[in-house]
Amino acid sequence: MRGRRWALWAVQSAGAELCVLVGRMGAPKAPSLAATMDVMVACAAFVQAASGLTFGVIRCLQKFVNYT
């Protein structure tokens, strides 16, 4: 369980950093459009990976949560 939470944290952090990088690429001295699109696609991949990892963490936590 601990490894899954660390993986989720790492993937979410990487996605957030890429999101900030995409935002900073809009500056006047920005790199090419292709570089911006590459970073955006990588950001989207990390967001999708975080969504999948969330389901792995939730399944493990359901064993410990008492639904009354």
TrEMBL record:
Membrane-related topology note: Multi-pass membrane protein
Gene Ontology CC annotations of this record: membrane
Segments crossing the lipid bilayer: 39-61
Subcellular location: Membrane
One MF annotation (Gene Ontology) recorded for this entry: nitrate transmembrane transporter activity
Keywords: Membrane, Transmembrane, Transmembrane helix
Domain of life, per lineage: Eukaryota
Name under which the protein is recorded: Uncharacterized protein
